[in-house]
Amino acid sequence: MVSRRHERSYVRLPVNLVGILPSGRFEQMGSVLDISKGGLRVETGRSLSPGQMLDVFLRGITTPYASCRVVWTHTRGGALPSEAGLEIQGQPTADSPGQGSDFLAELRGVYHNPLGPS
């Protein structure tokens, strides 16, 4: 079994991913599938690339939750959504809405499923 640096909480949380491509800025809707203090796994309709930088916005909140680097991707092909592992660069700050350790604690309390996704 792989040892993880941070406890993972399984969630289904709508987000907007914002990044820059050579052709310009893009915004893509997606969902967080799990989250930890160090990163998150997202599902989105857009293929992402390892090394790409993104800002992750919780839907309805105008301040980014975190700036992240894409670490890995899994493209399923066709109309199926893609998954990506994002590493948080720095840590979210507690003084912005919906951010910081209190937010993660709240997510764990509301959404935590130690058995993983159902």
Provide structural commentary.
The protein is built from one helix and six strands. It has one domain: Beta Barrel (Thrombin, subunit H). Helices cover 10% and strands 45% of the residues. With 118 residues, the protein is mainly β.
Strand content: 35-45%
Indicate the radius of gyration in whole angstroms.
14 Å
Instruction: Please report the total strand number as a whole number.
Output: 6
Detail the poorly predicted runs: 94-101, 108-115
Distance between the termini: 20 Å
Question: How do the strands line up in the largest sheet?
Answer: 1-2-3-6-5-4
State the name of the first-level CATH class: Mainly Beta
Characteristics:
Thrombin, subunit H; 6-stranded antiparallel β-barrel; single chain; 10% helix; 118 residues; mainly beta
State the gist of this model.
With 118 residues, this protein is mainly beta.
Topology, pairings included?
Elements: E1 9-21, E2 24-35, E3 39-44, E4 53-58, E5 66-74, E6 82-88, H1 100-111
Antiparallel strand pairs: 1-2, 1-4, 2-3, 3-6, 4-5, 5-6
